[in-house]
Amino acid sequence: MSLILAVLLAPPLGASSLAILVRPYQRFVGWVSTIGVALSLAASIALCTTVMGAGPQQEAVPATALWRVDALSALLALCVTFVALVAMLLGRRAGHPDREELARTRYFWIFTNAFVFTMLIAVTIQNVALMWVAIEATTITSAMVIPLTRTKASVEASWKYLLICSVGIALAFAGTVLAYFDFVATAGEVPGALNWTVLRGAAPSLHPALLQLAFAFLLIGYGTKAGLAPMHTWLPDAHAEAPSLVSALMSGVLLAVAMYAIGRWKAVVDAAVDSSFTNRLLMGFGVVSVVIGTFSLVIQRHYKRMLAYSSVEHMGLVSIGLALGPLGAFAALLHTMNHAVAKSLSFLAAGRILHRYDTTEIGKVTGLLRVMPWTGALFAIGILALVGLPPFGLFVSEFLLVRAAVVTGRFWVAGLVLVLLLTAFTSLVHHLNRMLYGEPPPAVTIGERRGWSVTVLAVSVGVLIVLGVTLPRPVAALITQSVRGVIP
Amino acid sequence: MSRYAVLVVQPLVALGLAPGLVGFVRWLKARLQSRRGAPPWQPYFEIRKLFGKEAVVSHTASWIFRATPFVVFGTSVVVASLVPLILVPASPLVAGDVFAAVYLLLLGTFFLALAGLDTGSPFGGMGASREMTVVALTEPTVALSIVALALSAGSTNFSQIVARTIAEPAAALGPGHLLAFIALFVVTLAETGRLPVDNPSTHLELTMIHEAMVLEYSGPYLALIEWGSALKLLVFLALAANLFIPWGLAFALAPGALAIGLASAIVKLGALAATIAVLETRVAKLRLFRVPELLSASFVLALLAVMSTFLVR
Amino acid sequence: MGGAFSQLVMLGSSGMLVTALIVLWRKGVPAYITAYRWQSWLLAALTATVGYYGDGQLYWVAGLLLGLKGVAIPALLRTMQRRFGTEREAAPYVNTEVSLLIASVLVVFAYLLGRPWMAVTQLPTRQGLPLAMSVLFVSLFIIVSRKKAITQVIGFLMLENAIALLAVVGTFGVPFLVEFGVFLDALMGFLVMQIFIYHIHDTFDTLDVDALARLRH
Lengths: 488, 313, 217
Fold this sequence. Notes:
The complex is a heterotrimer.
Chain A: H1 3-21, H2 26-53, H3 71-89, H4 102-124, H5 128-145, H6 152-187, H7 196-202, H8 208-226, H9 234-241, H10 244-270, H11 276-298, H12 303-322, H13 325-357, H14 368-371, H15 373-386, H16 393-407, H17 411-436, H18 452-469, H19 473-486
Chain B: H1 2-32, H2 42-52, H3 63-82, H4 98-118, H5 122-153, H6 158-167, H7 175-191, H8 210-213, H9 219-244, H10 255-282, H11 291-310
Helix pairs in contact in B: 1-3, 1-9, 1-10, 2-9, 3-4, 3-9, 4-5, 5-6, 5-7, 5-11, 7-9, 7-11, 9-10
Chain C: H1 3-25, H2 29-53, H3 58-83, H4 96-120, H5 128-145, H6 149-171, H7 176-204
Helix pairs in contact in C: 1-2, 1-5, 1-6, 2-3, 2-6, 3-7, 4-5, 5-6, 6-7
């Protein structure tokens, strides 16, 4: 394993182990985690630059039996580490309405670091079954953090999350076994048979019917994890009840990692079957997700659930993008990146709001701009970004998505997406207005210092603006190369 | 000519063995419960006693009430000549068909239920409705478990099925075979009114199913019905034993083969009767609303048996 | 590898399906735990049989299966069940008869799905494939239709068994590293679920999933 890869993966694992071994001094552990994730971020940036310099070979570091980092992996590793760093820099206060307890803090650091570690493994490993193991591990580690405050709602949410996602993941494993079975039946048992490059290479000689069945299982399985409707039922509860730091990680990048898994398998199946099959399935699930996500936004009464349903909608858009050929895949990957930043920003701001107002209901949060001017502004920016307003990055990616739909002749998809985006825009802005203006509730302290957290969130905003106004050349090149990971 | 002679003798042998079978089950149960129990040939004395008594028939009963004992007895006798008890019916007549056997027995049950309703007694009606519930649930299972065998043999003719199983002993280990056997065994318990579906020795009317339907019968009618029911038990057990474990059945008319056939039939029937006795001692009667659960489970087993044989060919 | 091997594999797989059906049939949690234990033992025996006729590495897998799923997890389940002893699946969302009928429909569906595979391969174990899919679907149905959290966990464990059976029967086992990873996941998943059952009981005072219905739109 090369050094860069080790620097990418080791810090979160180390921080998690440290948190397990050390009982007191959790603030120290917190700082170690943050510095560790910063190191991982640096390593992922290094990987991105290397992979772009590697040219058509597409590998950032020499591939070993287990690990292989190409442009798509590097892109996702970058997203994961960035969101993780932002979340950890905000410290735990964003997540806890209560007074700090040492045991819960320790729990938090152990499992959040493990969570980041498993996500990084999932995107860099090339054995599809071990990728599955890593994604299942993300379910387990994130499920441990959700009921950090042992309330009825959080226990219920985490139980649903654990059960539904484990079932979905089990189905995904069934799909993996089916594809492997097909491979073994045609090519015999080869070492490294489960590496997705080998599978993709052997795909033209595999049986189409079997691969189609396998892909159906895989899409339903990983789609459950990605929050595609109708398997999304765990998502609003889990993302709303989790501590905001964890919600930011889950909503921002975990869903993207699940879509990454789907994208890798799409590449394998497309090499065997005409891509219209996978495209139709992805399009179907995507459209249903966008519809359900948007309409659930209209009647929302809790702002964190609102953000969660927005994730369902955006993952639906990513799914539609993956189904629209190379142009659509470019839009989808750009959208993943933008969504990661915007969603984490929104959730982290929402966490600060929760900490101050002590309620999750939209109706009870009023006068945000007066009570917390900085956070209110940041939250507003996050929501406006999520609805696709310029100058933020999501505008560009959604525009590219609609353009891809029009170019490939799917006008009805373009029209539907536009209508639904408009609906989402209306609902979200309406809810936002209710929160920003008006009289603050009497029990809430007014005023806010511009602290460290605000600065970090402002950096996120800056990233969004940069991605929206000018898509920097290196980023565009990285995404273009990543598209080849999905559409060969 | 002699083949037809045996086809007449086989039901006579069955008639002779049937009360002994019931008596054996009762005697074994008693022994298991640390009682002495009546000797295994007690039912013979009971039947003889009943034939000597007077039949008391209600004024409101119609011809169905009087006809039913003959229908029950007659169908049981006919079916006893169809199923492979000692000899495998060798000619491919319609008479050798599985469905004929099953539905003749069902005809007897149907008439019995009607007779239960016929007298206007509330217990009769209650027993008839319960019996119909049970039978409605066992019918598909019986059909399916025999179809499972018939599919692998390619015919619903008894001789073909038996020949196929003897020709391929490995198939007897197959899950299709075993599941169908278990399903058929559960159905036997249900159709012949044994525990855990119905308690044959109960005297509490509200717990009766089969006994409630025959509550009004007396004298020779009761004798015929008792004998017919015993014969039904023997026929079901013979089906279960000889379709799934057919070794020992006679294919030819040689006296040696027939003797071996008789001996093996007695051994297999005795084993199954012992299983029933042990089972009846171990389990309690199911409450009526839980009987469908048991029968659905046996239905699923029979369906699995059909699946295993059908889609694996 | 002859007809006896195929028959044994089919027998074992059918046995696993029957144990899954027992969960739909019976109402008491101890019966479920016993059914799961039987299923895991059958799975281990099947893996060892396939290992005998095929790859010897599968013996290790069979041993792991036996230790983990055949002994350790049922013991943990029994401890849990003794702690919450009064839980009985008295009124599931779908009653027993209908559950069993739906299970038979699922078995037929699994067989229909499995036809293309059986046509593709010449493996002697191919008849176990549709049976493995049936166990998978029946386990999914158990999770969906039962009310007690502990029954849902048992359904999930049976789902994992079904996938392990699929791997053994369809591919003669996946590479050992993968099996090990999958075991670890299964174990961790189960432990976490166990922790959650204690959470649920502490917070709600019942294991009835009906009570977990506060979160709505």
